[in-house]
Amino acid sequence: MNKLRRDVLKYLPLPLLCAPLIAIHAAATAASRQAQPPIKLALVESLSGPFANTGEAVFRNLLWATERVNARGGVQLPEGRRELAIVRYDSKGQNEEALSALRAAIDDGARIIMQGNSSATAAALLDAIDKHNSRDPARRVLYLNYSAVDPALTNERCSFWHFRFDAHADMRMAALMEVIKEDKAVHSAYLIGQDYSFGQAVLREARRQLALQRPDVRIVGDELHPVGRVKDFAPYAAKIQQSGAQAVITGNWGNDLMLLVKAAREAGYEGRFYTFYGNALGAPAALGEAGVGKVLAVADWLPNVPTPESRAFYQSFRQRFPRSQDDYVHMRMQLMIEALAQSLEKAESTDTVAVARAMEHAQVQLAGRSGAMRAADHQFQQSLVVGMMGKQGSPGVDFDVEGSGYGFKVVREIAAAKAEMPSMCRMKRY
């Protein structure tokens, strides 16, 4: 019987002999690919302290974006499909804590670092990442920035390892000026901001652009205040009221914006607020009826962008996060994760240099919005919108913010080509 078996095997074709082994190998390879570990994305952000609400808002956006990528199977790489996984690191609103979080994230195996809610922290991280990547090439990391908008970060401080997905402060100010230059009711303006690199940049650019586009507007106030430490903005509101300014221009964000606008309302101020983040957490509710027709905000996108794609996108986010206090969605963060997924697949690798080279040419779109990375300075180029605060249900305000009953009607859209600004970046390339 054994001889017969040997004789039969002797005359079987080699493919048939190997078929069981090939099947076993294929099954093992498939199982191996399915078991690939996720790609870690380290979120370094304020998750406690006075700006914890902004950090949590970021996390919800990025979580939703990664869930969308993972729902379609994750990122396709040669070794198989890999999902994206966010690991949270609390900076507590302090640069030293952020640097400690960066070191912990690298030690934990993360090669993608995400941060944005402070340009001062962004600068500290960028410096540390540049040094780390030179010192430890085997563990190089990329830095994806979704909100830190100090123009220097993609100009004199630009880096091959840093990619910014928000419009920088000068771009945002230029968009606001498109509306201010036509607002003939404004004859004087009060400039106020947070006393760090970003706040200083906003006021500097406000002065420059007012001189160019509205030289008839007098600046009747120009001051900076400590970041995150002012609990009572009544003295600032009183000065704004006494100045007689028809408009306030501010880059304030987080509690510093919410408390400022609330104090101004209580002081009886009736002028307009031209803001970078007037649509942000807490601000519309704090302003209430007094903000209708008076508060303007510039953004990469607003929920009331009048397209079916935009409407469906916003409604989908609200289905995922139905609580009113969780209502703050950022289109740019969604596009950032899409750009990362695209770049990983084009690089066919998680190698930091390969992904960075692919990301330099990323072009992404979602829900009718699109953007492209500019390789020269790693500044994302996208259209911007300016919105005017209005009551929900009024023309152009289908959606409110955080259940406040107030939202933002789009009054101006600035095409990406017009929002683009020159750069003085001279980065070292790899």
UniProtKB/TrEMBL annotation:
From which residue to which does the signal peptide run? 1-30
Pfam families recorded: Peripla_BP_6
Where in the numbering of this chain does the Leucine-binding protein domain appear? 38-390
The entry's keywords: Signal
Which superkingdom does the taxonomy of this entry point to?
A: Bacteria
- Identify the PANTHER family for this entry: LEUCINE-SPECIFIC-BINDING PROTEIN
UniProt record similarity statement? Belongs to the leucine-binding protein family.
Q: What is this protein called?
A: Branched-chain amino acid ABC transporter substrate-binding protein
Upper lineage is: Bacteria, Pseudomonadati, Pseudomonadota, Betaproteobacteria, Burkholderiales
